């Protein structure tokens, strides 16, 4: 009875704690926050001064006394204290410090997470102000958020491409029949673009610039009409700022290695999927979710490589947060999908 009262009075929260972005879903309200997983702190006072959007704008531009940090790497916590402060800031922002009872928090995590990494997520959420913490695997959350019927005895293959990891899973009867977590995703794409400019144009560009180029003209498969854009950076030889024009053909070459890793992970999943579930995937196709699903032509490339129908979900950027929130709100129905 007491636990029911707690659940009724508290504003339960679902968190997509992503390498690139953190999303918050509040019980009864839906997704209320979507900000970069970036923190800026003062080196002398060790105090967090900017979080989220404000911190992202300062990446690569901070004065000597400040440092910008991305506290998550490859989908897991790499800086415990900073992650805790970031979650605490976002909770305060979302609930506006008006909560009486600490919230129950559901957090999605990579399918290949270790016990140590699980504990880090739980501890950081508790210390940031959570009453209880539930964990759900990202591909399961993405499937629920994409409105796939996970409870039926049919196989659904989902590929969730985030900032730090690509999660490939086959889901049936509310459980994961096969999963693989590959630590190649959006961040590696940005790094590949930065390296491409350095090697081919003697130009150093920042991570934010690489991400903008990727979003503007990045592609995984030849486009009907190739795109182009200008990119500014610092010349390696002269040290002077310069501007060059690149095309989507150039950026496709830059992205070829991480894209190939993602395609190979899909192929491995197909090879290891039980035959009966393979027949379902042949019929239903493959679903792409996450920010990486928006790379132009990725669905066409996977279709070209596998011969299977591939489709991007309706809301790839929010599937995981939405699915985590739905599972939390309907705990009795989805109790079995939580992994702790």
What is the name of the CATH superfamily of the largest domain?
ATPase, nucleotide binding domain
CATH structural architecture of the largest domain = 2-Layer Sandwich
- Widest β-sheet, arrangement of strands: 3-2-1-9-10
Count of discrete domains: 2
CA(first)-CA(last) distance: 22 Å
Q: Please tell me the overall pLDDT.
A: 93
Pick out the low-confidence regions: none
User: Helix amount, in percent?
Assistant: 40-55%
Q: Helices and strands, in N-to-C order?
A: HEEEEEHEEEHEHEHEEEHEHEEHHEHEHH
Output the number of helix runs.
12
Largest sheet: 5 strands, mixed
Radius of gyration: 21 Å
Shape designation: flat
Structural class: alpha+beta
CATH-defined topology of the largest domain: Nucleotidyltransferase, domain 5
CATH class of the largest domain: Alpha Beta
Number of strands: 18
Strand content is 25-35%
In short:
By secondary structure, the chain is an alpha+beta fold. It is built from 12 helices and 18 strands.
Outline the structure in words.
The chain is an alpha+beta fold and 340 residues long. It has helices at 2-9, 53-57, 80-95, 115-127, 138-145, 186-201, 207-217, 248-272, 275-284, 298-306, 319-329, 331-334, and strands at 13-17, 21-26, 30-36, 39-42, 47-51, 66-69, 72-73, 76-77, 104-109, 132-137, 156-161, 166-172, 175-182, 203-204, 228-235, 241-247, 286-289, 310-312. The chain folds into two domains: 2-141 and 319-337, ATPase, nucleotide binding domain (Nucleotidyltransferase, domain 5); 148-313, Nucleotidyltransferase, domain 5 (2-Layer Sandwich). The protein has twelve helices and 18 strands. The chain has a five-stranded mixed beta sheet, with helices on both faces. The chain has a five-stranded mixed beta sheet with strand order 13-12-11-17-18. A three-stranded antiparallel beta sheet has the order 5-4-6. The radius of gyration is 21 Å and the shape is flat. The mean pLDDT is 93.
